[in-house]
Specification:
Elements: E1 5-10, H1 24-31, E2 37-43, H2 46-49, H3 62-65, H4 83-95, E3 99-104, H5 150-165, E4 169-172, H6 191-201, H7 207-210, H8 218-231, H9 233-257, E5 261-264, H10 272-279, H11 283-288, E6 293-296, H12 300-305, H13 315-328, E7 334-339, E8 341-342, E9 347-348, H14 349-352, H15 354-364, E10 368-371, E11 374-377, E12 381-385, H16 392-405, E13 412-413, E14 417-420, H17 422-435, H18 440-449, E15 456-459, E16 470-472, H19 480-487, E17 494-498, E18 513-516, E19 525-529, H20 535-545, H21 579-592, E20 597-599, E21 603-607, E22 613-618, E23 626-632, E24 639-642, E25 652-655, E26 660-663, E27 674-679, E28 684-690
Parallel strand pairs: 1-2, 1-12, 2-3, 3-4, 4-5, 5-6, 6-7, 7-12, 10-15, 14-15, 14-16, 16-17
Antiparallel strand pairs: 8-9, 10-11, 13-21, 17-19, 18-19, 20-23, 21-22, 22-28, 23-27, 24-28, 25-26, 25-27
């Protein structure tokens, strides 16, 4: 599809094995377009473990033919696919220009559908928070009893399967990579894995901890966990990141040698730092190791609607994953999952939450990245899940909105943009453990929650290609070169945060305003330069800073704070930043940004190559229709065009003389200095404004 790659993740339920072409033509007639790839959800890793070759035809177990072995979707009942059927499907898809990938989870179903390989190799099971008692999934970094590595066995199987079936590549996801949705502090402290840690890190454990090695009961593993996570946390995180990098270097080198690809989820609704700290995977390092594509699971709608009643709505946080991850990764390796529907998990964003689903599609493609090459989309495309059991009329609806989302051509970002620093990111692990300070990602989505959206990240080498308002998180953590570059920036206002007591004058910066969070035990400083600040704005900020929000400060050593247990519950525990300080930063940023338009709703503003300002106008109500009012700071508008599928009617323009709103189609001639447009509940309206 023009503007981005489209992959469809789906069960074999989406194809008809009794058709002469195994349902390929039927599938493409339903979608109405040819995707770049189809990822077959084979689910159980025994698809690789128990591969028998192509000498004879045999049936695949039900948990390869459908996710969780479910009996049906809305379209058909589960069918008994054979190895020959699947090979023919891959061949027929390829004839139409569609690559087929094989996806697996790290699933184990207790022999519900077939005798599982893991029963003969229990040493490969993951040991969770309760030691061996919670060994429920595969853990790809373990060793067999004879000391050989599981990954070496697995990679041999992968290469043979991909070649024999004629598939394009492998996709690893939930419970395989990432290994789970829990936290690294309770992942696996078995004797095998801790031994690997000790060999790599060259650290020593106290004698009372060493004496537990060889025993993998709950008490022994918890004892190792408590010591390692408390006193060797940086080494433990780094070891896990190194270990996954080794795994992917091996896998990618072998798979690439036979002309195939590796796709991986690798994260679990987390940004790059959370993925490292909470899950133990460095996304940049595994891409540099050869991973062809990260399929980020930015799934705010499905994660919210299927979660517990007390699960927060993480729309703004999850959306911020897109630009943050793009800034961290080498360019061209990032697509995002979009939740369509799932028969196994029994939900449908398309049918039950269409406004939110549409908002997901539009918003994730609004974000940009500014680097040494200029401005580009943060994401390279969509990874639609799941794509089976969707009828043509629903695919038409989806396709229309994807085309709109992907039509945001590369121009420039008129909203504020946040600086990304690789140097600061590399320092954040140590800094976070001992201060729990906000990460750039945290600041990005908190500003959005306060009503001021950033539209992109700017990498250090991209500053020369950017003009506009620059947000600099953790200025004190930048490299000396980066600090000097920011201090010299003169193409817009600069709003910075920094550690307690930081003095910007050390770098020749003369702030026009500076303030601190007076109610925090780790009081961040904010300073701004390159803009004028009115007395009225100063008074509003002073008022916001004057009141404590009542949230308690962290007690004791930040290193010892109790961690969350699941990334879908929450990720990182942060030092207190009062709501007033956050809102003051957001208000300051909103007032100093250089935009020709004043907008009374949360927004992202891009400027298209033809000069139009593309506005993403967000409804801050989930249950009511609202209207956004947009006014020129100076001058008048030439034209305003609705780009999204809603609203149907054109905007109403303001008659300044009478203080009334009029539709342009009434024929009344008025100066177009402002307009009003309708927003659907939990939705976003997109308009192009020509000045």
């Amino acid at each position: 599809m023009k503007g981005g790659k489209i992959f469809i993740w789906m069960n074999l339920l989406g194809f008809e094995r009794n058709d002469a072409d195994k349902g390929v033509n039927r599938f493409l007639e339903q979608t109405g377009f040819v995707p770049d790839g189809v990822c077959a959800l084979m689910d159980h890793p025994d698809f690789f473990h128990q591969y028998r070759g192509m000498d004879q035809e045999y049936e695949l177990p039900p948990d390869n033919c459908a996710y969780f072995g479910i009996p049906c979707n809305v379209e058909r009942e589960r069918q008994p696919w054979t190895n020959y059927d699947l090979r023919e499907l891959a061949c027929n898809l390829k004839k139409h220009g569609v690559n087929l990938y094989a996806n697996i989870f790290g699933s184990e179903f207790g022999n519900a559908f077939h005798e599982e390989w893991i029963n003969e190799h229990p040493e490969i099971r993951r040991h969770g928070a309760n030691g061996a008692e919670n060994a429920l999934k595969h853990f790809a970094l373990k060793r067999f009893r004879d000391g050989t590595y599981y990954e070496d066995f697995f990679i041999e199987k992968v290469c043979r399967v991909l070649q024999d079936y004629g598939m394009k590549g492998i996709h690893l996801s939930d419970s395989f990579c990432p290994p789970n949705s829990g936290m690294l502090h309770s992942l696996d402290y078995s004797t095998d894995y801790v031994e690997q840690f000790l060999i790599h890190s060259k650290v020593e454990l106290p004698e009372d901890i060493t004496s537990t090695m060889g025993c993998d009961d709950k008490e022994s593993e918890e004892k190792r966990r408590d010591y390692i996570y408390t006193y060797l946390r940086e080494e433990w995180v780094e070891f896990n990141a190194w270990r996954w990098t080794v795994f992917f270097k091996k896998l990618c080198s072998r798979v690439h040698a036979i002309g195939k690809e590796v796709m991986v989820l690798g994260m679990y609704a987390t940004d790059p730092f959370e993925t490292l700290y909470c899950i133990g995977i460095d996304l940049k390092r595994i891409v540099e190791a050869g991973v062809d594509c990260i399929t980020a699971n930015i799934l705010p709608t499905s994660a919210y609607m299927v979660g517990a009643d007390n699960r927060p709505d993480y729309f703004l946080r999850y959306m911020a994953i897109a630009p943050t991850t793009a800034a961290h990764l080498p360019k061209g390796h990032l697509v995002s999952m979009v939740g369509l529907q799932d028969a196994a998990e029994e939900w449908s964003a398309m049918h039950h939450f269409p406004c939110r689903h549409e908002r997901d599609l539009y918003t994730m493609m609004a974000y940009k990245l500014v680097d040494g090459d200029g401005t580009s989309g943060a994401l390279d495309g969509y990874f639609l899940c799941l794509g089976d059991g969707i009828h043509r009329n629903d695919w038409d609806w989806e396709r229309e909105r994807m085309k709109i989302a992907l039509s945001a051509e590369e121009g420039r970002v008129a909203s504020p943009c946040m600086l990304w620093s690789d140097y600061a990111h590399d320092k954040m692990l140590h800094e976070y453990i001992y201060t729990r300070r906000w990460t750039p990602f945290k600041l990005f989505y908190e500003l959005a929650k306060a009503g001021t959206h950033c539209g992109a990240y700017v990498r250090q080498e991209g500053i020369a290609n950017y003009s506009g308002t620059l947000v600099v998180p953790n200025f004190d953590m930048l490299s000396e070169e980066e600090k000097k570059t920011v201090a010299a920036y003169d193409r817009g206002a600069v709003v910075c945060s920094a550690c307690p007591g930081f003095e910007p004058e050390m770098y020749g910066i003369k702030p026009v305003m500076q303030f601190s969070d007076r109610f925090s035990s780790f009081p961040l400083t904010c300073f701004v330069f390159g803009s004028e600040i009115s007395e009225e704005l100063q008074d509003k900020i002073t008022e916001l800073l004057a009141e404590d929000d009542g949230i308690p400060n962290l007690e004791g050593n930040p290193r010892d704070v109790k961690e969350y247990e699941n990334v879908l519950q929450d990720t990182l525990v942060f030092a207190k930043v009062t709501k007033g300080f956050r809102d003051a930063m957001a208000l300051l940023l909103k007032e100093v940004q250089e935009s020709p338009l004043l907008i009374d709703k949360p927004n992202i503003i891009l400027q298209m190559p033809d000069g139009a300002y593309r506005l993403y106008l967000f409804n801050d109500s989930d249950v009511k229709y609202h209207r956004a009012f947009v006014k020129c700071r100076n001058g008048v508008m030439k034209d305003v065009r609705i780009i999204s599928k809603f609203p149907i009617l054109p905007p109403r323009f303001m008659d300044e003389a009478k203080g009334q709103l009029h539709h342009a189609y009434t024929g009344k001639e008025i100066a177009k200095t402002g307009f009003e447009v309708k927003l659907q509940p939990a939705g976003v309206t997109i308009v192009d404004v020509y000045m």
